[in-house]
Amino acid sequence: MIVTQEDRACNNAEPQTNKISISGNIVPSNWYHRLLRPCGKSDTTAIAILSELVFLHRYNGNTEFQLNFNYFKRKFNFGISQAKDAVIRLEQAELLKRSLRTVIVRGRRFTNEMFLVLNIENVLKLNSQDQAKKFPLSGRKEKTDSPEISSDNIDKKENNKKSRSSESSFVSNSFLENQDSPISVVTYKQRFSLASFYPLTQSDIDKMQYLCGREFSGNAINEILQSLSIKLPNHSFPHKAAFIKYMGKALAYEMRDAVKISNESFRIKGNITSEENITKAREEFLNEIENSRDTSAKMQLSRKLAGILEPSIAYDFLMSASFVDNTESLKADNFKIILRKKLTLSQSEHRLILAQVQSVYGDHINRLNITSSQDAETTDASFKQPRALQKEDTKSFEGIWGKIRQGLIDYYGSGGNAMDNAWFGKLTAEVDSNAKKLTLKAPTKFIKDWVQSNYSHLIDKLCSLHSYSLEEVRCV
């Protein structure tokens, strides 16, 4: 057979195939054998996050990235808790470091911004050919260490070895009293209930994940344990190793999906107490008021009271209060409120309520007329102080800063005057009435740091009630 030059060219030509176009990062296959969860499976969440950081490093050459958990949630469709746990595991394996910093962008201050620093040296070790060397994530231990052997089991084995002798043990084990020795008292070993192990430590959670072979989060395992302790109050264990083995089997046969319940907000209904339900209802009620877009005077007053009063007091008051049509209050000096149930309010709370009424309906109102619909009793909430105090207040409490100082005293109740003398009275205010901004000046750096860290949030909230904002607290 004669082979022509054209045939040789056809044989040497490459076959025509469709090219695969891949963009983004590609994960090395040996990562799946070296980055493992405590249950022995590949830690896919940590692998995806680490591969994203390596991709960004190859793209721009940086090793430090300003990223948060929401970034990984949007990128890989993870849950916030999944991304957080995976980053912590990578940090424990010394593959990256994280830090929280304050960043200022265009004059705006952003606190607690997370930065991730990639450890290139340890990441390169992952690509080595030694497959037997695995990176420990989440403090993973070898199978021989789990479950742990308790001292009780060791004592039982030693006693069994001693009893295996050719001599009869009838005398020593008989019910007859031994006259040569004092009477011994029989004691029973302590047993532990399910509730005594709640909440679980991270090491115990790792052992249970290893035994059950499922990736439940720590929050989900604690919720399941709490539910079992309520359903089985009499179930007990001789030691911790028996409890861990029991929980490992319980989690292996758990009907709930491990991925769906592995988030920070997961709760089992039976574990939620009545107090937690009341707190949740209170928060939802106050949030609904604060987020309302109703611009009526009554709703404006409700929003101000929800923001300035203590949450439990604000909830009880707003749930029972009915603001009468106070159109006459534009001329009168009193404000009418009807309560569906009788409430006991302190003098400082009365003054806070009156201050919010004045900010909505006018400063000419100086008295609250609170009526309880149950006993039809009227409570006079006007503020009558000794004349000496009134004169002192008119001298030192003037302008917008004077109103805010009075609000701070009312907020802290009986200790408000002492706190004003110690901190607020030593500050001087610089008011920009055009920009509606307030700047506070402290005589020393210590007072400035203390006021800024402990009271700036409350001062800013009181400023907003008068359409002002706190610019800063600085030294003179």
Automatic annotation (TrEMBL):
Cross-referenced InterPro entries = DnaA_N_dom (IPR024633), DnaA_N_sf (IPR038454)
* Region named Disordered: 135-165
Query: What's the domain of life for this entry?
Result: Bacteria
Domain named DnaA N-terminal: residues: 401-464
Composition bias type Basic and acidic residues, residue spans:
153-165
Q: What is the lineage of its organism?
A: Bacteria, Pseudomonadati, Pseudomonadota, Alphaproteobacteria, Rickettsiales
Return the Pfam families for the record. DnaA_N
Spell out the protein name for this chain: DNA-like protein
